TrEMBL record, chains A, B, C, D:
GO cellular component labels: cytosol
MF GO annotations: glyoxylate reductase (NADPH) activity; NAD binding; NADP binding
Keyword Glycoprotein set for record: no
Active site: 169
Protein's job: Catalyzes the NADPH-dependent reduction of glyoxylate to glycolate as well as succinic semialdehyde (SSA) to gamma-hydroxybutyrate in vitro. May function in redox homeostasis and play a role in oxidative stress tolerance by detoxifying glyoxylate and SSA generated in glycolate metabolism and GABA metabolism, respectively.
Protein name: 2-hydroxy-3-oxopropionate reductase
Ranges of residues in domain 3-hydroxyisobutyrate dehydrogenase-like NAD-binding: 163-282
Residue span, 6-phosphogluconate dehydrogenase NADP-binding domain: 2-160
Matching PROSITE patterns: 3_HYDROXYISOBUT_DH
Organism: Vicia faba
Catalytic activity entry: 4-hydroxybutanoate + NADP(+) = succinate semialdehyde + NADPH + H(+); glycolate + NADP(+) = glyoxylate + NADPH + H(+)
Family per similarity comment: Belongs to the HIBADH-related family. NP60 subfamily.
């Protein structure tokens, strides 16, 4: 079966290569078409436009950088909408619930099926097929896409109505942003108290709080290395959206609010393009 | 070899039983002596006073409720100091660095050896021998005690000078207190946004943040059950001590400070004796 | 000279009566027209629609409850736009910069002049002509309106381009919201330390921090009385908008963020319609 | 009548000169005796030791830098205690309740009377006799000192038991520290939104929030000038003590906690000796 794939950034490239390596036939498209060349080497076919990809495939996956790119691929000339009648469209980008619902409504009005499916995990998880997929929308399309999801991720969730996936993803990232600040403060406390912060990593790693985030970020933070796995400015944006969701639903979130301000502070001192673990530098 | 054990509270009882089951000969003492009866059934001998226990054993472990109890057992009449010459004393209670140093100085002045060895982990870890032991002080005594530590914990650390273990423990608990607040806010956000908070537990458990704390506390929090594994008022006290340590060393800790105020708020509304996960109730 | 006045809520009513008492001829309109009766007793004329008021007057002032009401009065059928050619329109409502700019653009496109002029101060200031007016937009219209502003307020500012008045107002309210939280915490601290909180009011009132906000709100807070001068839910909304403005401009605002969460907490426990000083109840 | 005065720092010097100018006979002492010379020019007599001053005067005022200096002057050799029998001692230093009670107990045990009388206000208030005096302890001594207090301050309060004055002072400073952060965030928000922060000062000064703190600090903050009226490190210490008092009494103080961390951050970047308004630099 032919799958369409729109968007070959860091995440999209890794995901579409995974699909190809697992025997899927994939037709790819990227705004800068030359980025498709590497995929062709892995066996992909290239579509000239989003509409062309959609027309050719049973369903099409999109992995785009932000809400504006997600909207553009759907609504612009030669966009997804033009050929979506009778097809499926799966947006795995991280976008807010409102944007996701807007895309869903337009696609349904044209006779297509829509699934939102944001992921938890970064570049290395994408490469290793270890993403967590948080889907919502058209249930039958979800089931149709499960073979692909099984290749892309280690676990898929189906939540219900479009928008619920986006909300769940924001909650996950809010927890992650606050945890990173908690971790940063602990590391600085140990360091400034004259102890070895590497020992804190070890102690944490042997206790109930042991987790992959601390394990992967701790050693690089100690080396003052902030190569972006997940850029700080995106983390800040997600925390802002999570706080806005909290505001809508009258949920007090004081710790997330303060964590957000730490990311804000980091951004205002030029750290926005580094990894989000660079928030520790606000504690200097 | 005979080991002394002072203090048979929730933690001390589980730890001394573990030692007995692994073939150690243990002489126990507790302020309320009747609490020793159950230990006798497991094979323990009873000492009449801390001094009597210390006199009889090569080294003695203490697991007491707070700094004041830790001081009392050492300095009072019939206390540890009276027989410590030539012996070892290991305090595994959670106490601040100043108290630990005060005890250490007195014991060394009387010709004894001292090791502080606070633990990370609660009642179930104590029962299962899965504590993490954070030791500092007399290195030879640490090595002598390793066979016992191997029974009590899954991992032991030796950090250096007396006081360092206490500081490391505070940093660990500061991270834990902030993480619990981050987790609580995420759960409330999901719930009030009309999603299933159980799904957040699932999603978190499959991603990089998966950890034993969320796994053990999440399900009970969803049931609104706060049976104290680690009482909230103790968590708040530890966060306060961690913030004080930060203050001494000029470490800004805004997230921990806000988390501490949430525990403070919880305490002021009568939740101090519940499990520290009851902090989620401040988000009602 | 004839002045138009749209919106006779708590603020608008007090302001238009003030204008009438100072000899201005005022034509009023309110969505619920019966509310105009009291104004007629004070000498006002009634206009049937916003368009009718604008047509009759040299310039028209609006004082509406929120952005949506502000937009409706301008853009709806029989709205301001229909007759604005050659006239002036002054919106004194509290609205965000984006909404203000949208109204401004439409009015200018139709040949009218626009001034935004949000105010600092509540009901009693409106009644006493003691508002602070923060204007921006069409300079000549500002000067034309100065005689009216001199009646309505004790001080007027002209800031420049449309949107700047709205932004300045948000900054003022962010300071106010944080100050109210600081004040609340001080009162609770004194009270729970066994001292008389009334003495704190006295001490503050004799020092450098003495200000009208503490003087007017302190005594009612001590009586647990929260009759809404400025509803808490509006304060929370303004803090959220101020934080969003900070986010746009990369300004870390940790104290305002935490103060906002306290208002959020108050709202979530049903205090939204009380005065914003009711935020002290989150410290119970 | 002869008054003793111990401590001729910035505050003590201004206060004792005031007393001399208003006709009081004053015997002064300072640890560095040469600092007494200027006071002699104003008509003071010099005492060789605290004990010598106390012996000569009906009552003695102390204005010392911190708890340790306050204790030393009383308990050291040739200290206050040696001659306090039948005399009065008034400590106007800013010290915590525990220290104040310790001094009080010792003085009463020796047959002396004690009054704590911390002040609100800085150097300029001291020079102008505009301090606010927050007294507690021996009521008759308070009344005896009122003529002097009337010269030193514009208003005196008598609160009750020793310790209550210290606590009230901490609450006042907690409000002040949070207000300064609220003010700083407002100024930065306005500035980064492209508006003139001087206009915010003007707007605030015409509204309900107008106060002497903003009026005196605003203009110097805009000039980036932080000549210490009240050093930041002392402000941070007072906030910490206020939070500790809140902790004792289970008062949640999230805004003060975050404000304290901002001062902490400022201290950790070397701003501790500047005026406390330099906390705005943490928002860069």
């Amino acid at each position: 079966m032919e799958i369409g794939f729109l968007g070959l950034g860091i995440m999209g490239k890794a995901m579409s290569i995974n699909l190809l390596h697992h025997g899927f036939k994939v037709t790819v498209w990227n705004r800068t078409l030359s980025k498709c060349d590497e995929l062709v080497e892995h066996g992909a076919t290239v579509g000239e436009t989003p509409a062309a990809v959609v027309k050719k495939c049973k369903y099409t996956i999109a992995m785009l950088s932000d809400p504006s790119a997600a909207l553009s691929v759907v609504f612009d000339k030669d966009g997804v909408l033009e050929q979506i009648n009778g097809k499926g469209y799966i947006d795995m980008s991280t976008i807010d619930a409102q944007t996701s619902i807007k895309i869903s409504d337009a696609i349904k009005a044209k006779g297509g099926d829509f699934l939102e499916a944001p992921v938890s995990g970064g570049k290395t998880h994408a490469e290793d097929g270890q993403l967590v997929i948080i889907a919502a929308g058209h249930k039958a399309l979800y089931e149709e896409a499960l073979p692909a999801f099984d290749v892309l991720g280690k676990k898929s969730f189906f939540l219900g109505a479009v928008g619920d996936g986006a909300k769940m993803k924001l909650a996950v990232n809010a927890v992650m942003g606050s945890m990173m600040n908690a971790f940063s403060e602990g590391l600085r406390l140990v360091e400034r108290s004259g102890l070895n912060p590497g020992t804190l990593l070890d102690v944490l790693d042997h206790g109930a709080m042991s987790n992959g985030l601390f394990k992967s970020k701790g050693p690089t933070m100690l080396k003052n290395s902030y190569n972006p796995g997940f850029p700080l400015k995106h983390m800040q944006k997600d925390m802002r959206l999570a706080l806005a969701l909290g505001d809508e639903n009258a949920v007090p979130m004081p710790v997330a609010a303060v964590a957000n301000e730490a990311f804000e502070k980091a951004k205002s001192t030029g750290l926005g393009d580094l990894d989000f673990s660079a928030v520790i530098k606000t504690l200097n």
